[in-house]
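Re: the 112-residue chain
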Amino acid sequence: MQEFLLILRGDGMNHMSPDELQKIMAGYTNWVNTLGENYLAGQRLQENGSLLTSKTDKITTDGPFLESKEIIAGFFIIAAKDLDEASNIAQSSPHLGPYSIEVRPIVFPKMK
C-alpha cells in the first residue's frame, strides 16, 4: 500500500446553512468509517491567518489563502494500492462538490 494526500480545494462551505453543514459532516463520518484502515488522517485548516516564507520573503495574510484564488481548506491522508484506487476513494468523498480534491502520492525517502 502507498500513502496519498487528498487536498481539498475550493471556495469552502461558508455559504452553507447549518443543516447543510451537518449533512456533510454526517456523510464525512460515514465515509471515514467505510474507508476503515485506508483512512490514515485528515484535518480542516484554519480559515484565516497564513504565512508564506522563503529565504528572501515572508508574507503574512489575514485571509485563508496566499496569492491564490481558491482556498486549500483541508487534507486527508489515505492508503491505497495505486493512484487509480486513491482516485476512486477521492471520488467517494462527501466533500466532492463543495470542493475539488487533488490526489498526490506521498514519497518517502529511502533510508540507507
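The chain has a mean pLDDT of 81.
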